[in-house]
Design brief:
InterPro entries: Actin_polarity_regulatory, Afi1_N, Tripartite_DENN. Helix content is about 40%, strand content about 10%. With about 800 residues, it is an alpha+beta fold. Among the domains are: about 140 residues, 2-Layer Sandwich (Beta-Lactamase); about 210 residues, Rossmann fold (3-Layer(aba) Sandwich), CATH 3.40.50.11500; about 130 residues, no CATH class. It has a 5-stranded antiparallel beta sheet, sandwiched between helices. It is globular and about 95 Å long. It starts with a strand and ends with a helix.
């Protein structure tokens, strides 16, 4: 059941409530507010489950003092976490699952009289137009190359399977509502079961069928054309379809030698016999942490546990745990038999044609990431010509050229994808694999692993025969090799020519009327003060920040920032610097993921400022009007309503140095935010946020907001004490620590701070060890102790500086001495 978010006051970077003028009611729908009991009990871990929800306090808002070291909030923060019995580790692909790794294997060939012909479909016909399918498998000019790869997607059995997928979604929603109703009991079992793939079935329908296709041309003077052209394709639901490339190479050679259906059957049985049952299933936060980290043994404990479960199940046949040495039973991490060398990839073997083919499957999967592509290759393709001989964009477009005619081409591409423009990648005289990889890279670029709706409307390879169907798809992303597409400007909005490395904006692109958001900033150019946008940028640079803060960008003040209100130029500079310094593909993907994360938070603040409420923010209205902070005289936290917390704790959203800086950056990004608000990816993201909030362990606080305050603002001892104590009190269980670590990874990551990919990591939390108040130091020490014992947190702890570790040891010694005196 959905409710409409009522109008509420905005919260600035310092956490204080401020009323905005000319705000209008939002008509966006939100999930039920039945989770309030969970949100308002984030300090009530030891409370009686039967305790009813407290009513908001009527205390005055005159004095906001932090809790003293002996206050009840401090005691709550130091309660040891209540550990529960370890649940069995679930497999991502259980051995007894009925789902096949590969659903179909196809073979097509080119006949000089009949054209493209489908020869075999195993184990049965895929359905649909066989001629069109064969044409997709045999791209244009394929006879000019000995080998080529293509990728395309099938929307197979959408109507037949929609009912089944809808049933799964209803079941998950029911389960999520049940977890939300019982959230006050602090049981995080449901969150542990939540996988980001559980909600990959977007509002557009069931998952796609991904098709990896290999085309080979062999010279044969006995045939009319002088060559034999055949293609073999694998159809799978797995987005990591690139792992099948070695198998396709072997299988197509086998098929040339033995063109029989048995060859397809052997391949089908071999790939579906691949054992992935020892790959653990990671939840949303664990996948995010793994992607943000370069540690090769991260979550190795899960691999050890699932192997131990398998050994226990096999019993005496394979050797029970009793046959293991006592040392290995006490310290399973010392046993490395069968463990992956890198936990980012699960290694398996497929035996085909008497050849053991090693396979590596990514453990953490991102949304909209299909196949094996390179963002670095895409960026350098269009950045090199722009940097050597820049050509201004003509015409310009408010959604695309957000930094004027000289906007970087990658930013133009990113804006085009976010605002759902028609994008075509043209690769004249290039293999179709080149344009297909560019399309897949572009989808991942705009998604950032967060936004969805790109791959479902992407066509990695298409041709002129399908142009009528292509033009019916709004906001498509297509790859072509025919130069005729470049001359038809009415077919596309942005053309990316891979051959030349240049981008063009169509002179027939539509420009909509000014929106409310753009009009708002045009009518209030200097609001909320007389400080201009450029002056705001200079002020940020003067204190050592950049608008790309948190994106791995350069934090050293530069003169170029004064002419870069959006921060895009600084961001692209950091990207190109990272590429030149060989930071690697994962580092570049992480930077764009953080850019997208920041963009969504800017969009949320934009909607709040202009429209009064945001569909990108799910926040309990009762938490937006704090009455009074906790004080040394406050009652036990179990009886303290969350609405009585200090305003700096209840803030939400992106953090700026001041309202002036907020206005300057939102004004600079207004056009592309408004362009994004009516797209598929926007509505999918709103839907995903609903699910995210339902499964989020810490609902009452915006941990990202609080951590950003500690990282960006100069806070007084009282304000910082309240923030530290609130975080320490809220983060107790394993899943809450996962959420905090994911927040740290997404908010403070910097490629310059080490190969672990965690950047400054726990640095800003560890600063609480030097707080002037003893209670804060002890609370932070307790939190860091819990993180230190966490399976992922130990890696963050290992990246912490020695100075902070010594401070933690001193705080722990002080706590122990105090406990001994009490005894």
């Amino acid at each position: 059941m959905a409710t409409v978010l009522p109008l509420h006051a905005n919260t600035n970077s310092t956490g204080s409530a401020s009323t905005s003028t000319s705000l209008r009611q939002s008509t966006s729908s939100f999930p039920s507010s039945g989770d309030r009991s969970t949100a308002q009990s984030f300090l009530t871990r030891s409370a009686d489950p039967s305790t009813h929800r407290s009513q908001p306090s009527n205390a005055s808002n005159d004095s906001h003092r932090s809790s003293l070291s002996n206050g009840p909030l401090t005691m709550a923060a130091h309660r040891p976490p209540q550990r529960r019995v370890q649940k069995p580790i679930k497999s991502r692909y259980p051995a007894d699952s009925m789902e096949k790794h590969v659903e179909y294997i196809l073979v097509a060939s080119f006949d000089i009289d009949r054209g493209s012909v489908m020869e075999h479909q195993y184990p049965g016909p895929v359905g649909g137009d066989e001629v069109m399918l064969a044409e997709l498998m045999l791209p244009d000019q394929t006879h000019l190359r000995s080998q080529d790869w293509t990728i395309f997607f099938l929307h197979k059995d959408a109507e037949a399977e929609e009912e089944g997928f809808e049933g799964k979604r209803r079941k998950r929603r029911t389960r999520g509502e049940g977890q939300a109703e019982g959230g006050a009991q602090r049981d995080d079992e449901g969150e542990e079961d939540w996988d980001s793939d559980d909600e990959q079935d977007s509002m557009d329908g069931p998952p796609l069928v991904y098709v990896l296709n290999l085309v080979n041309t062999k010279t044969d003077h006995t045939v009319k054309r002088g060559a034999v052209v055949k293609a073999m394709a694998i159809c799978t639901r797995h987005s990591f379809l690139h792992i099948y490339k070695p198998l396709l190479l072997l299988a197509l050679e086998q098929y040339f030698a033995h063109p029989q259906v048995e060859t397809l059957a052997n391949l089908y049985n071999a790939v579906n016999g691949m054992d992935l049952s020892l790959m653990p299933r990671l939840n949303f936060y664990e996948q995010f942490i793994l992607q943000a980290s370069g540690a090769k043994d991260l979550f190795i404990e899960k691999f050890e546990a699932i192997i131990a479960q398998r050994v226990a199940e096999n019993g005496s046949e394979t050797g029970s745990q009793g046959s293991m040495s006592p040392a290995l039973q006490q310290h399973p991490s010392r046993s490395r038999f069968g463990l992956p060398r890198d936990t980012h990839e699960f290694e398996s073997v497929v035996h085909y044609a008497h050849v053991p083919v090693p396979i590596k499957i990514p453990v953490a999967l991102s949304a909209e990431t299909v196949g094996d592509f390179s963002l670095i290759k895409l960026i350098t393709t269009f950045s090199t010509p722009h940097s050597t001989s820049p050509v201004p964009f003509t015409p310009t477009h408010p959604h695309l050229t957000t930094s004027g005619p000289n906007t970087h081409p990658i930013i133009v591409l990113l804006n085009a994808l976010l605002t759902q423009k028609r994008v075509i990648f043209l690769g004249h005289n290039l293999p179709s694999s080149e344009v297909a990889e560019a399309v897949l890279a572009a989808c991942a670029l705009a998604s950032g692993g967060m936004l969805q709706g790109f791959t479902r409307h992407a066509f990695p390879y298409t041709d002129l025969t399908k142009i009528d169907d292509l033009l019916k798809v709004p906001g498509f992303i297509a790859g072509v090799t025919n130069p005729a597409f470049g001359h038809k400007t009415e077919w596309w909005d942005v053309l990316c020519d891979i051959s030349t490395g240049r981008m063009r904006i169509s002179n027939k692109i539509e420009t909509g009327p000014p929106t409310e958001g753009v009009t708002y900033f045009q009518q209030n150019p200097m609001a909320p003060s007389t400080m201009s946008a450029s002056a705001g940028i200079v002020a940020i640079a003067a204190v050592g920040h950049s608008l790309s803060a948190g994106l791995g960008g350069n934090a050293i003040p530069t003169g170029s920032l004064s002419g870069d209100p959006t921060g895009d130029a600084a961001f692209m500079t950091s990207i190109l610097t990272a590429i030149n310094e060989r930071h690697g593909e994962n580092a570049i993907r992480t930077k764009f993921r953080l850019w997208i994360a920041k963009f969504t938070r800017l969009a949320s603040a934009f909607e709040e400022l202009v429209y009064g409420a945001s569909a990108l923010l799910i926040h309990d209205p009762s938490l937006t009007s704090p009455k009074a902070p906790l004080s040394p005289d406050s009652p036990d936290p179990a009886a303290t309503p969350a609405s009585d917390l200090p305003p700096e704790v209840l803030g939400h959203g992106y953090v700026w140095l001041s309202n002036q800086h907020r206005h300057a950056e939102l004004a600079a990004n207004a056009t592309r935010i408004e362009g994004w608000r009516n797209t598929r990816s926007y509505y999918n993201f709103v839907q995903d946020l609903t699910t995210y909030y339902t499964h989020r362990p810490v609902k009452a606080l915006d941990l990202q907001h609080l951590h950003d305050k500690l990282a960006k603002l100069r806070l007084g001892p009282d304000v910082s004490a309240n923030i530290y104590l609130a975080i320490c009190a809220a983060v107790q269980t394993e899943q809450e620590i996962n959420q905090l670590l994911a927040t740290i990874a997404s908010g403070s990551w910097d490629a310059r701070q080490g190969s672990a990919g965690m950047g400054q990591g726990l640095f800003y939390l560890a600063l609480g060890l030097f707080h002037p108040r003893k209670g804060v130091r002890e609370a932070v020490a307790g939190l860091l102790g819990r993180i230190r014992e966490h399976e992922a947190g130990r890696h963050f702890w290992g990246a912490l500086g020695r100075f902070a570790k010594v401070a933690w040891e001193r705080a722990e010694m002080g706590i122990q001495r105090g406990e001994n005196r009490e005894v």
